[in-house]
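Researcher: Please translate sequence to structure tokens.
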Amino acid sequence: MQGDTAAGSRALRMTVTGLSVAALLLTTGCWVGLTAVNGVENQLTVDDSLSSQLASATPDAVTTSAGATHAAEPQTFTAENILVVGSDTRTAQGPGFGSTADSSGNGKSDTAFILHISADRKSAFAVSIPRDSWVTRPGCNADGRTDGSMVTGKFNAAFGAGGRGCVLAAVKYLTHIPITHFLEVDFNGFKAIVDALGGVTVCATRRLLDPIRSDGHGGMQGTDLDLPQGTTHINGKTALQLARARHILGSTGSDLERIDHQQLFLTVLIQEASDSHLATDPIRLYDVLSQVAGSLTVDKGLSGDSLQTFVLSMASIKPSDIAFYTVPWKPRGDGENVVWITSKADDMWNAMIHETAYPPASSATPKPSSSSTTSSNSSSSTAKAACFG
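Model: Translation complete:
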């Protein structure tokens, strides 16, 4: 049945949510990062209603002979599986983010990925879930609690149906992964985050144009992106246009093509922030984190002392230790949606559940190097060498 889908609206893209994770990872290299976290954590929105749906991944504490309690050594931690969601609601976000009709309610989780952080805190990989995945998931009440029914339709409708609780229930049902934390981000602060980093340098294999024009259905589409061919240092406004663009002239208009662009942008951003030694510059780091913190909603386990412990546990993770993938998929046959290739997707979920290597050693798919992306229909490539096109 298709009981609780809602009218569509333009998406918030993966790059926005990825920036929040990138900022968190980039704080872990030193005590400067912890100081910055202490300064901005009170700007986070905490949703304690999710606690009952989340698995525990709390490390044991170690007490020294002097009686001081510290976080356990990295090898004593358990793996973390963080569901990162970008909502496309425009509620309280001001003009410039869509039509008036889009400016209320939960919106939809048109961006979602699961970030797996290994128990030894030496690596991490993220798996994007396409917004147009055609799935069967638990039905939900408006408050996010499941209602005992099953609903078939687009994955991204879960957020509009029941908010964070509903999309969390959907991911748990579809993957069987014990999700330990939840993180949501909205449009606010995106441009400021990139600008706080001084912008980022990207390259394009051709001129990328996404003019604002009619979508043929009484609405408008396009981001007004105009990115020249070659290498360009872009500011936050252009970064937002690039992150949101789905209908670039000469492209397929596919959400999956856009995911590839978003993952590439994120890896370039992480690498550039790392190269600029952001983690050792407390003033710039605080500026970046203060821009993103107000746009984040987290579960209780990513707030207060728990957030500090979590950040410290990841001190050894570097940009080269992070890989990005997309759920293996195939066309549904309706010209719009995709279905998961279950056997291949299960390899990803099992790696997260059982803390095993991904891709499996027997897989012919090459593991991405630093700053690379992989989906079912694309090969891995490095962000340093790759360009948008």
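Researcher: Any highlights?
Model: The chain has one domain: 14-192+277-374.
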